[in-house]
Write a structure and sequence with these properties.
mainly alpha, 194 residues
């Protein structure tokens, strides 16, 4: 990548649509999704700290959530059933994501690469924090399924069920708290929310 093109590339997140194999009542791009993941990841950190007496850096979680899908600017959004079809495909895609992250970092001056490298690399020593971002990513996907189902789109029913099972299986009390306290509001209309 050419020098100083990192942020111009980041601005392209709005062109990468999610859920490519599904009929959507409304399109969602990775820019929109990443903002939602950032907000939820931050909330999970705050829940950890305020409800469960933890000491997670919630601001860092928000930042990691903002950039968690940035490599898809290069790779595109690979549908989950394809990405996890078998271990060989999953591992190959992880390798491609790592290469894409390194390529994106070449668009930054040397002095900034370390800062952004930690945000783009899930294996960069912040694995405990990435657990929160992954939970936020799944919650965001579940929200999409709920919204599509509310619009009468049955294509998202099975996806919603399997994503809910994944969230439940994480054994993460912050995610459980979020799902219990905040998810019911996503089932309501705007008028019902007032």
């Amino acid at each position: 990548m050419k020098d100083n093109h990192f942020f111009a590339m980041m601005s392209r997140m709005k062109y990468i649509n999610r859920w490519g194999l599904m009929r959507n009542t409304f399109k969602e791009n990775i820019c929109e999704h990443s903002l939602e993941v950032a907000m939820i990841a931050h909330a999970l950190g705050v829940i950890n700290n305020k409800i469960f007496g933890g000491s997670v850096n919630a601001d860092r979680l928000a930042l990691m959530g903002m950039y968690h899908d940035a490599t898809e600017i290069i790779t595109g959004d690979m549908p989950t059933p394809v990405k996890y079809y078998n271990p060989a495909i999953r591992d190959a895609y992880k390798e491609v994501e790592g290469i894409a992250a390194k390529e994106l970092l070449t668009g930054l001056p040397d002095e900034l690469r370390e800062t952004y490298g930690g945000i783009l690399d899930e294996n960069g020593g912040e694995e405990p924090l990435w657990r929160y971002v992954k939970a936020a990513d799944k919650i965001s996907a579940y929200i999409k399924c709920v919204e599509e189902k509310r619009m009468g789109n049955r294509d998202f029913e099975k996806a919603g069920e399997s994503i809910k099972e994944i969230i439940d299986g994480m054994g993460m009390r912050e995610a459980e708290y979020f799902m219990e306290k905040f998810m019911p509001a996503y089932e309501l209309t705007l008028d019902e929310s007032k």
